[in-house]
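Order emerges. For instance:

***
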Amino acid sequence: MNKQTDIATTIKYKANTTLKSKKLISLMNILNVTSIQKWRGGEAQMYMYFELLQEYKDLNQMILCPEDSVLAGKCKEKMQKHFTYTIEHKVFSLIKPIIKICKANKINVIHVHDSSALTASLLALPFLSNKVQIVLSRKRNNKIKDKFINRFKYSHPRIIKIISVSKAVEKIFDPIIKDKSRLTTIYDAIDVAAFVGLEKQHLIHEEYNLPKETKIIGNVAALTVQKDLHTFIDTAKIILAKTTDKQQIKFVIIGEGPLEDELIAYAKDQGIAEHLLFMGHRKNVNQLLSDFDVFLLTSETEGLPLTIYEALASQVPVVATCAGGIAEVVKNDSTGFVTDLKDANKLAEHVLELLINNELADHIKQNAYKLVKEHHDLKNIKESYYAFYKSLKIK
C-alpha cells in the first residue's frame, strides 16, 4: 500500500487487495469501473456477473468504485479484488486511479458502467498503453443527444464494444454509432431458484392487518420520475372505481425515493390514499413478491428492469407499459400484458382481467416462468458474459 502514496492528496486511492505482488495467470485482466455510490440496477448487474465469472481462471477481474459506496462494502466483506477512491469530482477523481491500476496490473479491458466512468476512462487513455481497450455497459434507454461531444465520446475507437440490456437500449446508439458491429445485447438474469416455491406467506397482509382474501396489486420501484408512479396511482383509481368491494384490493409500492411525499399527496388528492401502501425499502422482496396477485409496472423509461424477471420467476402475472425493452420479454396474452406509456385505462383493464380470469392468469404464469427459467437464469448470463469476454480481440 505504501507505494501508492505518490497519488495527489486530493485523491485518496486505496488498493484493497495486493495485486501487484501476485503472479497473474490470467489471459485477460479486466477492470470494472463505476462512479456510483448507491446500489442501483447497474451496480447489481455488474457485481452479479463479476461473482459468477470468478470460476474462470483465464479472467482476472477487479473493481474500482467509490470508497463509501455500497459496492465497496460488498467487495470488502467478501475480500474480493477491488480498489476504492475518494470522490471530490465525479470525473477527475477517477482518472489517476484508473491510470495507476491499469499500469500496475497490466489491464487489457476497462469495463465501464456509467457515463462519468466512461469520460474518466477516455481521459486516462493517453497515459496508457494502446493495448488497453474499453467496454461500456448501458442499462437505461434515455436518449443520447446527437451532438459532436456525444458522437466523439460514444464512438471513440478504443471503445470496442457497447453492451445493452435490451434491444431498445441498443437502439439509442443508432444515430451516433455507424459501425453496428460494436453494439451487442446481453439480457440480464436473476437467480430464479431464489424465487421458486415461495408460496404466499401473507406477510403484507399480516403487517397491515388485511384479510388473506385481499388482492395485492404491487410494484417494486424507486420513487423517481422515470418510474411514473403517478400513472400507477391513476390506474389504481380506475380499478377501484370498477370494483364493487374496494376493501378486497390493496395497492402496494415497495421502494423509496425523492418523490415519496409528492406521491402520497397525489394519492390523497385522488381519494385513494387508504387503498395504497407505501412500504419503503425492503430486503425481503422475493418473499413479498409472492404475496402479489398482479405486478403493475408503469415506467416511462427503462432498460429492462430486474423486477420484471423477479415477478416472472415468482409466477406473478405482469402488466406493464412498453418502456424500454419490457415488450421484449412481456408478450401480450402470453407472458403478461404491455400497454402504451401512461395508458392508465388499458393498464387497469388488463389488471382486472387477470383478477377475474383465473385460467388466463395461470396460462400467463406458466409461460412467464418457463421464459425466465430457460433464458434469464444465472447460468445464461454467466455463459453469455464469458463468451463475450473471450470473443474480444485483445492486442
Q: What stands out?
A: The first strand starts at residue 13 and ends at 15. The two ends are 30 Å apart (CA to CA). The longest helix spans residues 358-375. DSSP finds 14 helices and 14 strands in the chain.
